[in-house]
Design brief:
Length: 158
């Protein structure tokens, strides 16, 4: 069983999500199934089948979160000796050399990744390209839209 790297904040978010799913969502879905069951013939009961599908998805997510928490290797970036290199949990400011746009990314674990918040999975193409690099280095990333080049402007451990 491989350890899954996760930030302290990421683990807290997972635990909150798990609690919400167990305390709020699970009873809501069980009630929806009971309500739909009371309508009679289950073979042609779309509400019942939809609720059962929701229940299956919910239980799958609960299992997934439990598994991640069990394998969690919490990495506190503030307690790691660093030498200016990009590592798991670091926040990196890069400049897209083509567009001159500055972007700030944080390298995180799989369950924390969220492109809308610039939280990048450390094993994603851009994550792999950045890991181990230094400030002022140029990195090349093979993106679906073609190769992109970034200059690392700043590496923070916050």
């Amino acid at each position: 069983m491989d350890k899954e790297p996760v930030t302290k904040l990421g683990l807290e978010k997972l635990k909150k999500e798990l609690e919400h799913l167990k305390i709020k969502e699970r009873p809501r879905i069980v009630a929806a199934i009971a309500e739909a069951r009371s309508h009679g013939d289950l073979k042609e009961n779309a509400e019942y089948h939809a609720a059962k599908e929701q229940q299956a998805q919910l239980e799958g997510r609960i299992l997934s979160i439990n598994d991640t928490i069990a394998r969690a290797n919490v990495i506190d970036i503030t307690k790691i000796d660093n030498n200016g290199k990009v590592i798991f949990g670091s926040t990196i400011t890069v400049e897209d050399l083509e567009t001159k746009k500055k972007i700030k990314y944080k390298l995180v674990g799989k369950d924390e990744a969220n492109i809308n918040e610039n939280l990048i999975y450390f094993k994603s193409p851009i994550g792999k390209a950045l890991i181990g690099k230094d400030c002022n280095e140029i990195v090349s990333v093979a993106a679906p839209s073609g190769e992109r080049n970034f200059e690392i402007l700043k590496v923070e451990y916050i």
